[in-house]
Structures are given as structure tokens and as C-alpha cells.
Design goal:
This protein is of the alpha/beta class. The protein is 30% helix and 17% strand. It is built from seven helices and 13 strands. It has a seven-stranded mixed beta sheet, with helices on one face. It has a four-stranded mixed beta sheet with strand order 7-8-10-11, with no helix packed on it. A hairpin with a 2-residue loop joins β10 and β11. α2 crosses α3, α3 crosses α7 and α4 packs parallel to α5. The longest helix is centred in the N-terminal third of the chain and has 36 residues.
């Protein structure tokens, strides 16, 4: 074989190898991209990570007393040193500057009960710690709190609306109207809405903020609370379909945030609350299973025609029996809060996932 033929053969072989490598790289990149795009961020486990928490609660001056476990004297801080690791991908690290730039000149609103307030406070702390010298102001008008990052013209708001549907005072008393949602006028035109309701649906006695339930022309003294919850979600879903402009607004539902008052659910029958719990349930499955409200919520969301994304935080939060204020919350030593979450803490992960969903 001539030298020229040998050189030509070598060049063709090298070119074929380069093409093969390039194709392999393209396939791998495509696979990684698809894995990230279609990854279930809600299936995974909690792993220790010394780079956490995402912020120092002492440097977030507006955390409310009931969530400020460290300031309230909680002695262990290991609960702040866990990171959520999805099974099939990695979450992008929260970047507060990128978040604020994405929403420059726009508005975000959390709508719901005190678990919405928990997540709202978490997000404002995460953003404040990212831009600690940026100007902000915090105001409240009736049931709406408005946290404004003035340099970015970003409003992060909270509308305290525990049922989403209306509670009104009538001649007979306070009436919970399952098919009325006049409060929705506050939500129109918001760029990102994160809704939530559940924890108040089973309240009875002095803490129940209504006297009657009304659905259609029927006024009832009470009814099956799960059915009432489903009917309220249906009313809310109709509001979304009738009022959301999908070219402007993104809609999320927070999901069902769990409580930990029964140790048998995590194979610790002697535990009657979350006090002195110092580590998560390890693994990816909660022994006690999911609360029934999760199924009701998912069924209601499937009926909505407009896009609503579920921030499906139930299972990952169930694994965090250690993340509640317990006696280091609003009630102090005489109280026991195993429903809300310490900040810094679990709601920061909800917001990390929200951030990844909107990238």
C-alpha cells in the first residue's frame, strides 16, 4: 500500500472515530437533559449536607416567632443540615439573584393558611440572604402581606385565606360557602400564584371559624369534611379555568403539608408528638403512608383544564418528623407544634423545588 493510501485510510478512520465520539456525547447530553426535564423531583431521600442551611435565621430579621426555632431555644441544629436528593436527578442550587431577575417587575402571591405563611417566610428569607444589601419593605393591608424587593420591583405576597372559598357573616351566623369564591378578585393578574388549603378543614369547637356550611341552596350545620374539602377545591378549580390568563400567570398548588403527632406512623409507638425528634425517617417511603387528602386533591386537580402544577411536598415532608417547632414554637414549653416547620428548614426545600420547576 502506498504512503498516500495509508494516510488517507488513517484520516478516514480518525474522522469516523471523531464522529462516533461526537454522536455518543450528543446522546449522553440528550439523555441527561431529558432526565433533568422529566425527573420526578418529589421521589428521593434526605441526605446530610454541611453546606446547609441556605441562610442563617439570625440574619433574617422578619421571621415570625412561631417559626424561629433557633431563637426560641431549640438546642439541636442537625435538622438544618439535610438536603433533599431526588432519586433520578440533582436539584439546581437555589440562586436568589437569578430568581429575582426572572421576576423583575412582577408579582408572586401565596394564598392559603399558615403553611402558606411558612413557605412565604421561607422564600423571603432565601431571597434576602441572596441580596442582603438590597432594599426591601414589608407592609400589610387587611389579610394581605406584601414583601417588596424595591431594587428589583418584585412583590412576594401572602393572602391569608384558609379555605380559598368564602366565609361570610349572615343573619344566622358565620357561613362557609363552598361554591362562592369572591376572594379571588385579589388573585387576578398575579404572575405566579401558589395556593394551599387543608389544615383548617377538620377544625371543630372554638377554633372552627364558621357556624354553617352552604352549598347551592342547602344550608347545613355540618357535613363530611373530606367531601366539603373536595367541593371547595372544585369551586377553586372553576375559578382557575375562568380567570387565569396562561400567557401571564403560572399557577401552583402547595400540596398537603403533614403533621407528626403519632409515632406509630414512623415505627416509634411511644412517641406522642414530634418533640425530641432529631433526624429524618431515612429512605424514600414513609411507613405511615400518605394522608387521604392527597388523593382528593389530585383528583380535583385532574379536573382543571388550565395548567396547574402540584408542588407535591407531602411525602418528602412526611419523612421530616424532626423539622417541626415542637415546644420551640408559638406556644413555648406549654405548646406542641408538630404541624408548622422551623425556619431555616423543610419549607426551604419546597422553595428549592419551586425554583427548579420555573427555571
Amino acid at each position: 500500500m502506498s504512503l498516500r493510501a495509508t494516510s488517507t485510510s488513517f484520516l478516514l478512520s480518525a474522522s469516523a472515530s471523531l464522529i462516533a465520539v461526537s454522536l455518543l456525547q450528543l446522546i449522553l447530553y440528550s439523555h441527561q437533559t431529558n432526565a433533568a426535564t422529566y425527573c420526578n423531583m418529589f421521589t428521593g431521600r434526605w441526605v446530610p449536607d454541611q453546606s446547609y442551611p441556605l441562610y442563617d435565621s439570625a440574619k433574617c430579621p422578619f421571621i415570625e416567632h412561631e417559626f424561629n426555632c433557633k431563637k426560641n431555644g431549640r438546642p439541636d441544629l442537625v435538622y438544618t443540615k439535610y438536603r433533599w436528593k431526588p432519586r433520578d436527578c440533582n436539584l439546581n442550587k437555589f440562586n436568589g439573584v437569578r430568581f429575582l431577575e426572572k421576576f423583575r417587575g412582577k408579582s408572586i402571591m401565596f394564598v392559603g393558611d399558615s403553611l402558606s405563611r411558612n413557605q412565604w417566610q421561607s422564600l423571603t428569607c432565601m431571597l434576602h440572604s441572596s441580596v442582603p444589601y438590597a432594599k426591601y419593605n414589608l407592609t400589610r393591608v387587611d389579610d394581605v402581606s406584601i414583601f417588596t424587593f424595591t431594587d428589583y420591583r418584585v412583590k412576594v405576597m401572602l393572602d391569608r385565606n384558609v379555605y380559598l372559598v368564602d366565609t361570610v357573616r349572615e343573619r344566622i351566623g358565620r357561613v362557609l360557602k363552598l361554591d362562592s369564591i369572591q376572594g379571588g378578585k385579589l388573585w387576578k393578574g398575579i404572575d405566579m400564584l401558589i395556593f394551599n388549603t387543608w389544615h383548617w378543614w377538620n377544625r371543630r369547637g372554638p377554633t372552627q371559624p364558621w357556624d354553617f356550611i352552604k352549598i347551592g341552596n342547602k344550608t347545613l350545620k355540618d357535613m363530611d369534611r373530606m367531601i366539603a374539602f373536595e367541593k371547595a377545591l372544585t369551586t377553586w378549580g372553576h375559578w382557575v379555568d375562568a380567570n387565569i390568563n396562561t400567557s401571564k400567570s403560572m399557577v401552583f398548588f402547595q400540596g398537603i403539608s403533614p403533621s407528626h403527632y403519632n409515632g406509630t406512623e414512623w415505627h416509634e409507638p411511644s412517641a406522642k408528638s414530634c418533640i425530641r425528634q432529631r433526624e429524618p425517617v431515612f429512605g424514600s417511603t414513609y411507613p405511615g403512608g400518605l394522608p387521604p387528602a392527597v388523593g382528593v386533591l389530585k383528583k380535583a386537580l385532574r379536573k382543571i383544564k388550565k395548567p396547574v402544577k402540584l408542588l407535591d411536598i407531602t411525602n418528602l415532608s412526611l419523612l421530616r418528623k424532626d423539622g417541626h417547632p415542637s415546644m420551640y414554637g408559638l406556644g413555648g414549653p406549654t405548646g406542641m407544634d408538630c404541624s408548622h416547620w422551623c425556619l431555616a428548614g423543610v419549607p426551604d426545600t419546597w422553595n428549592e423545588i419551586l425554583y427548579n420547576m420555573i427555571l
